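User: Let's play a game. I give you a shape written as tokens, and you guess the letters that built it. Ready? Here's round one.
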């Protein structure tokens, strides 16, 4: 009995020491994994993905739009963190934006700013501003550490524990976990479904980042309505990690006054 008690105490100590309050969202997150190691793994996975998929030529109109919008969002995020006195929060970010030819309606961002947009989402975004809404959302997942949080949860669930200074890329177990979380061939996209809280954070700050970049955040409403109109079978909201379309739209409408302040400031 004492043995299990001490194990429980040790586990609580690990959880306490590994939880860090996110300076942007204010939420406490489990963080067993150094961001630098996440970025190292992302570079390898990103290169592998690009080499095995058809990347649109950089000089095409759509590919140029993806890079233009992506760079504007990246600059907006840098500005946001700098204004908060945290320029080092994006240390190691080496932004890359690529358009990949695929019918899949998706876009994603790995740690370190490795971004892919599928051509299949462009008929839904329809315009540059809606694409900015999408990229703001996906990039937020990376910059606020959602991937690192998910990785840490998986490590803890599998009993791997705190890794310390051991390079993740030298540990096959951790590499496998990373590859399970970031699976470009998965039907749900590169990052397996996030929690509703993570999705809400990505909607919130993604809207702000797009607004700082000079894109009208109000475009988020018609974009998500177009996504909702795609139809298809969807699980009830209580069975899904992602918010229902109606709930997401209502939440975005509630966030709009705040986002519009950033947008108006960016226009002056």
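Assistant: Ready! My guess for every position:
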């Amino acid at each position: 009995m004492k043995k299990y008690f001490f194990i429980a105490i040790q586990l609580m100590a690990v959880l306490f020491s590994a939880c860090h309050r996110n300076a942007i969202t204010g939420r406490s997150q489990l963080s067993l994994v150094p961001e630098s190691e996440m970025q190292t793994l992302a570079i390898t996975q990103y290169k592998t993905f690009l080499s095995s998929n058809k990347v649109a030529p950089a000089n095409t109109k759509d590919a140029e739009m993806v890079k233009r919008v992506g760079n504007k969002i990246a600059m907006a995020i840098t500005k946001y963190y700098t204004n908060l006195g945290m320029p080092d929060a994006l240390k190691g970010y080496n932004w890359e934006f690529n358009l990949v030819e695929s019918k899949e309606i998706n876009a994603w961002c790995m740690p370190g700013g490795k971004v892919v947009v599928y051509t299949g989402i462009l008929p839904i975004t329809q315009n540059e501003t809606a694409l900015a809404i999408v990229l703001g959302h996906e990039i937020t997942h990376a910059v606020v550490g959602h991937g690192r949080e998910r990785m840490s949860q998986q490590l803890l669930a599998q009993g791997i524990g705190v890794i310390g200074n051991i390079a993740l890329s030298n540990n096959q177990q951790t590499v496998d976990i990373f590859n399970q979380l970031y699976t470009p061939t998965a039907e749900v996209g590169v990052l397996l479904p996030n929690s509703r809280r993570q999705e809400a954070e990505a909607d919130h700050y993604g809207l702000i980042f797009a607004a700082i970049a000079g894109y009208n955040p109000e475009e988020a409403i018609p974009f998500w309505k177009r996504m909702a109109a795609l139809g298809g079978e969807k699980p009830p909201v209580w069975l899904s990690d992602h918010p229902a379309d109606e709930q997401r739209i209502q939440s975005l409408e509630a966030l709009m006054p705040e986002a519009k302040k950033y947008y108006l400031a960016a226009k002056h």
